[in-house]
Amino acid sequence: MIEIALHSIKQELETYLRVKLDLAPSEQKIHLGPLVDGGGGGLSFNRNLLAMTLVHMQEERLLKNAPPATRVMPSGAIAHRPPDIKLILYLMFSANCANYSESLKLISLVVAFFQMKGAFDASNTPSLTEPVERLSADMMSMDFEQLNLLWGTLGTSYLPSVVYQIRLVPVRDDADKGERPPVKQIGMTGGGR
What we know:
There is one protein chain. The chain is of the alpha+beta class and about 190 residues long. The protein contains 3 helices and 9 strands; from the N terminus they run αβββββαββαββ. It is elongated and about 85 Å long. Helix 1 packs across helix 2 (about 100-115). It has one domain: STM4215-like (2-Layer Sandwich). Helices cover about 25% and strands about 30% of the residues.
């Protein structure tokens, strides 16, 4: 489900950049993945690309107490599934261009894209499929200390970047928790007083 959300956003942003930068249909401008290679030896993407990196995620706790999903099976039994976990994803977009002005232009285009399209659903994002119904994007404002901690954790030098909070990515296991026969009558047994 996380991958559906990220690939959908990448695809929409890639289309936007193609139009704004007058790129060929086959030209890719976004690298979805880590900033640095596994060995910590350097950036994991080529110059003149925009890196889209998942830097953090957390559970949306306000929606945690949702009731379990239920459905009636063909046999008449009722199947229960725990409620979805809703995640907030923190996506960082970093530009690594040979020309610093080009990096700034790419980051400006990312901000313009999310300003134009702050919400994603099936009506405006065809690649968004079940169970992801709707996503919203909000820019994160980070102070210098937070920025320093983030880039230090990532293990590389600062690049022009912006971080967006993407809400609410559902995560679920489609397997039912179990089937139970429906309740057909309620009665009391034993000697009540």
